[in-house]
Design goal:
It is built from twelve helices and eight strands. The protein is α/β, with parallel strands linked by helices. The chain has an eight-stranded parallel β-barrel, surrounded by six helices. Bound molecules: 1,3-dihydroxyacetonephosphate (13P). The site of 1,3-dihydroxyacetonephosphate (13P) has 14 residues, from strand 8.
Length: about 250
């Protein structure tokens, strides 16, 4: 099965209203009519609606960077998955390492959010990744397995096929220290194996696994040419039209 490459920009807590609109329209207008890859931008939540409007009619999806798992109620400061979907988003990033490490999100929290996102019709981009000390201790694949099993517990094969996984080694995020194509491919292949053992072959062949962590225009092609790397979740380089479009081009 051919998996369509998927490049998403995680803007994190950056930009203001006007620069968000400008960046989103710049990306929308810079894309060719027949891009071979799927493209999405994930701005801060207060700019989601404006960005949805800015890319309307263009092949650019919009995603939130997080959502809560409850449907509605007294959860001050939170956004439900249905709210994210209701304003025109298609995706939500879940379990990003910054959510896990700074805001204490557990695999069990991420799991509940995945179900909420699927129920709202969103495509969850579920992030996993090891810390530097875990890699140095030779525990990378164990850590990934634990996060995978905890975050994706209880999904049917059909639900799993509606998810995207992002492998983001924490030591590569925002550091300029990108994983080598071999390092990344080893983990992606093991995630593909987990998809086969926990779900089935068809699911393993169809789920896209993005790499994230210091992806730049000059390292994107080599990473994306690995057999199990199906796209990228881009942080810093997604904040400029030119660098983001260059990464999209590398995927095409
Ligand atoms: P950088 O591309 O800035 O390393 O960020 C990666 C990331 O965390 C995307 O979610």
């Amino acid at each position: 099965m051919v998996r369509k490459p998927f490049i998403a920009g995680n803007w994190k807590m950056n930009m203001d209203l006007q620069s968000s609109i400008d960046l989103a329209s710049g990306i929308a207008h810079g894309l060719g009519a027949s891009e071979a890859c799927e493209v999405a931008v994930c701005p801060p939540s207060v700019y989601l609606a404006a960005v949805v409007k800015a890319v309307a009619g263009n092949p650019v999806g919009v995603g939130a960077q997080n959502c809560y798992f409850e449907r509605d109620g007294a959860f001050t400061g939170e956004l439900s998955a249905s709210m994210v979907s209701n304003i025109g988003c298609q995706y939500v990033i879940l379990g990003h390492s910054e959510r896990r490490s700074i805001f204490g999100e557990s695999d069990a929290d991420v799991n509940k959010k995945v179900f909420a996102a699927l129920e709202a019709g969103l495509t969850p981009i579920v992030c996993v990744g090891e810390l530097l000390e875990e890699r140095e201790a030779g525990r990378t694949l164990d850590v990934i397995r634990t996060q995978f099993e905890g975050s994706l517990a209880g999904l049917s094969s059909d639900q799993m096929q509606h998810c995207v996984i992002a492998y983001e080694p924490v030591w590569a995020i925002g550091t300029g220290k990108v994983a080598t194509p071999d390092q990344a491919e080893e983990v992606h292949a093991s995630i593909r194996g987990l998809l086969t053992s926990s779900f089935d072959q068809a699911t393993a062949e169809s789920v896209r696994i993005q790499y994230g962590g210091s992806v730049k225009p000059d390292n994107a092609s080599e990473l994306l040419s690995q057999p199990n790397i199906d796209g990228a979740l881009v942080g810093g380089a997604s904040l400029k039209t030119d660098s983001f479009l260059a990464i999209v081009k590398a995927a095409n």
